[in-house]
Structure formats: C-alpha cells, structure tokens
Amino acid sequence: MILFPLAALAAAAAAEPATCVFDIAPPEPCTLQVQAGPGGTTRLRAQGRSGTQAVFSGKRANGWWAGALDGAPAMGFERNRGHVVFSTRALDRSFEYWTRGNEHGRY
C-alpha cells in the first residue's frame, strides 16, 4: 500500500465531476480527485453522490495500473482516455470511473 503524507494531501488538485461505478451498483455522479505523489505514484479519490467512495493509490504503465484499491492489492486498466476500471486482486471490490464524454471512448 502506498501512503501519502498529510501535507501532500492538502496540495491535491480540485475535484472534477465524473461518473463512477462502485462494485456492481449502477453508475452515479461523483467527484474525482487526482493527486501526484512521490516516485511517480498517483492517488485517485472518488466520492459518489450516494456517499460511497473509493481510493486507488498506485502507478500507471502503458494503460495499466498497479497499486491498492481501498488498501487491498489491485490492478486497473484504461478502457480509453478518461475511462478507467480498477479491481482488487481478490476480485471482491471494483471501481470504475469516466469523465464527461469518455464512457465509450474519445482519443
């Protein structure tokens, strides 16, 4: 698991609107906050309108992500620019988001 110092969290980018799918729930409006971390890591925090949230911390390499989803080992892949799917290795938790206009792809 990758941890970020509290000072770095305060410097996080403003949240942007997106659509999220938490586990197998229907898509819902959410906000997404992306923060660059040390050593090329990224922290994504999503908060759904329902109150559900997900946090992925890890690294990206050629459209694939490796890290932790809510503290559990996880992988992710980019369906296209602006649409990413994450799942824990145990497949007991998943999270997907896309930004406006990117659900079905835009390059």
Q: Which terms summarize this structure?
A:
107 residues; mainly beta; eight-stranded antiparallel barrel; 1 helix; 54% strand; globular
Silhouette? globular
Task: Summarize the main sheet.
Answer: 8 strands, antiparallel, barrel
How many domains is the backbone divided into?
1
Oligomerization status of the protein chains: single chain
Order of strands, main sheet, comes to 1-2-3-4-5-6-7-8
Radius of gyration: 13 Å
Number of helix segments? 1
Strand-residue proportion: over 45%
Structural class: mainly beta
What is the N-to-C succession of helices and strands?
HEEEEEEEE
The helix content is: under 10%
Structure summary, number of beta strands:
8
Mean pLDDT: 88
N-to-C span: 31 Å
The parts where pLDDT drops under 50 for at least 5 residues are 1-10
Q: What is the gist of this entry?
A:
This protein is mainly beta. The protein is built from one helix and eight strands.
Question: How would you portray this structure in words?
Answer:
With 107 residues, the protein is mainly β. It is 5% helix and 54% strand. It has one domain. It has one helix spanning 6-10; strands at 16-22, 28-36, 42-48, 53-61, 64-69, 72-80, 83-88, 94-98. The longest helix has 5 residues, at 6-10. The model is unreliable at 1-10 (pLDDT under 50).
Write the topology of this structure:
Blueprint lengths: L5 H5 L5 E7 L5 E9 L5 E7 L4 E9 L2 E6 L2 E9 L2 E6 L5 E5 L9
Antiparallel strand pairs: 1-2, 1-8, 2-3, 3-4, 4-5, 5-6, 6-7, 7-8
